[in-house]
Design brief:
TIM Barrel, alpha/beta, eight-stranded parallel β-sheet, 13% strand
Length: 338
């Protein structure tokens, strides 16, 4: 492919209507916004200008990633800050023609470490959602996530907030954080979600193997799996995922940065597709991994030799797997098909 052809393909993919199911709100905050919030709130950062901040943002290793993520969260001090973050996130999605996003958000961290009550958090983010719908033509719902390593008490609080706001800006209960820290201890939170028929969408099968995905299917009745790329290591799991068509939220650049795979050509994504699994493409924490959803689709074509039609099929997969009323999903699919 020539340079001109590559640029044409990227432009075509940028214009293609898309849906994103695995992206973190706090992990999507632009360096420029972090600097603005830090100056507004008197927070000290490792860099004082945009070039230095971009360099600090650049992924180095997992501990550094956590350091950046925590520092970003500490820059958020008010509901107005949250609304700004939500609006700017939706502007970035709209710029890529992403019609709908289901966004993981760690409300418990903002409540406990920043002090913004949950109802004020949601009011601010709902205001941003309204702005996105009215002004940008893009929608967003939140997945409130339990963080592995947090107490069961914290997990139950997140589950209760999810019940409280389900259908009003919140579409699911999530589970994130380091997989090695376990899943089963949060079974009561999953049970509460199940009682209210709330979907559970856990991260699994990225830094740990298929056993975590099994836990999330069996204990949490997961309706989608965040990442799930290491399911390829277990033929029995592959068979179950194929039979049930449980969607996988695959984030290749994130996986490569975290060392799950060394590069795109080694990534399991093509094998997952060849096995008939339900795959969607996502960006995870885009500025931290120096990517966007458009970049993910572009890399997919350049490294795995997929065509535009394959990319559109993945976008349709995401629309069908979205936690929306059936009529809304049909509308998304019609927009993707043009």
């Amino acid at each position: 492919m020539t340079l001109d052809e590559s640029q044409d393909r990227r432009h075509q993919l940028a214009q293609m209507p898309k849906v994103e199911l695995h992206v973190h709100l706090e992990g999507s905050i632009r360096p420029e916004t972090v600097l603005k919030l830090a100056e507004r709130n008197g927070v000290s950062l490792p860099a004082k200008d945009i070039s230095g901040l971009r360099d600090w943002y650049r992924f180095r290793n997992f501990p550094h990633f956590v350091e950046v993520y925590v520092a970003i969260s500490k820059c958020i001090r008010t509901p107005e800050d949250l609304e700004l973050i939500g609006r700017e996130f939706l502007e970035g999605q709209a710029d890529q023609n992403i019609l709908h996003s289901e966004v993981t958000y760690t409300a418990i961290t903002i409540a406990k470490h920043v002090g913004i009550p949950f109802d004020e958090q949601m009011a601010a983010l709902r205001s941003a959602m309204d702005y996105g719908r009215r002004n940008l033509g893009t929608s967003m719902n939140l997945i409130l996530d339990i963080v592995r390593g947090h107490s069961l008490e914290d997990a139950m609080q997140v589950a209760e907030w999810t019940v409280e706001s389900f259908g009003n800006g919140v579409c699911a209960l999530g589970l994130a954080g380091e997989e090695r820290l376990g899943t089963s201890q949060y079974a009561p939170a999953f049970a509460l979600a199940r009682q209210y028929e709330i979907p559970v969408v856990p991260h699994a099968g990225e830094t740990c193997g298929p056993e975590v995905i099994w836990d999330c299917i069996n204990l949490a009745n997961a309706v989608r799996i965040g990442h799930g790329v290491r399911s390829i290591e277990d033929p029995e799991l592959i068979a179950v995922l194929r039979e049930r068509q449980i969607p996988l939220e695959v984030c290749p650049t994130s996986n490569i940065c975290l060392g799950v795979y060394p590069d795109w050509t080694s990534h399991s994504l093509k094998q997952l597709l060849d096995e008939g699994l339900y795959v969607t493409l996502n960006s995870d924490d885009p500025p931290m991994f120096n990517t966007t959803l458009t970049d993910e689709y572009t890399q997919l074509c350049e490294n795995l030799s997929l065509e535009f039609g394959d990319c559109r099929s993945l976008a349709i997969n995401a629309a069908k797997a979205a936690l929306l009323p059936e009529a809304d999903k049909v509308l998304l699919i019609e927009q993707i098909l043009g």
